[in-house]
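Predict the holo structure. Ligand: MRU.
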Amino acid sequence: MPSFRTMQWAGGKLRLLDQTRLPHEEVYLDLESHEDVARAIREMRVRGAPAIGVAAAYGIALGAAGIVTDDPDLFHSRLDAVCETLLATRPTAVNLAWAVQRMRRVAAAKAPATARQALLAEAQAIEAEDEVSNRRLGTYGAALLPASATVLTHCNAGSLATAGYGTALGVLRAAREQGKQVRVYADETRPLLQGARLTAWELQRDGFCVTLITDSMAGYFIHKGIIDCVIVGADRIAANGDVANKIGTYALAVLAKENRVPFYVAAPTSTIDLATPSGDDIPIEERSPEEVTRVLETPIAPQGVKAANPAFDVTPAQYVTAIITEHGIARPPYMRSLAMIVRGRNREVNRAFK
Ligand code: MRU
């Protein structure tokens, strides 16, 4: 079990661990409105695809509580605006749109008082389900690791990125719970250093053997034969198995394939987007060039230099050894295995793609 809470509903507010302050300070924020939640997502105080979805769901519950009218039409048109505000925060992680759609469905055609209650209950259900999904996918994924494993990961796909336990790091937690020995190499993950700031903090705090490396060292360690497998999370998985994840993931996947090291993606089914046919259709968030010309607050480049900052990249399905979900492990051809997973035909999937 992780030793901290990424977020928690308490006293009618959303309590969030501010991830921009880690690893040096553990500061919790109490968010009281949907605007607060939207700002926290935009500023990456909460980040990671599943965590963004859960936070947005609570944001909608807070927004609904703040609409003081008994008029159903007025209530629903304002609720729509609340949903749109949250949807517009970050474009790549499909868990956000998935959670907003679930919340919209639950409120539809309900009277304001009933809708407010149902929305809070749904946000709590989304949070609880996410943690259960992570634990399940962790158990499936742990079975892929040898008894003593050295795993390379990128960005942070841990408890901090979810409602709890984590996806890629959930696999490592489950492997350890099964008595396996796990050593982790964590890429620092430029430009915002989620690996150095968050993964190193989370794993060290929970007693894992973690070694921090710069992104450019990954090839060296993979080529040396030190890495048994790479495990990353995902922001969106297209119907054909192409995976959008933190910038730098694609390069790792190519390195892994070249060196015959398995490359696993761990993600709940809320990250699988069958409506998006391939990676070419996934919107990639472009962030401020200043995140590249600075390391955190410190300028490192000549003033005025041009910089590009795509926050995610797409790893084509051909580089992905398997996709670990709470309904089982999908293997190529993904068009078929992911569709089966999403329809919940888990037993069949595990038989067919062993
Ligand atoms: O920009 P971020 O920090 O939100 O990006 C996060 C990632 O890319 C994670 O790997 C992904 O969301 C999976 S989290 C379980």
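Residues 223 and 259 are 6 Å apart (CA to CA). The mean pLDDT is 96.
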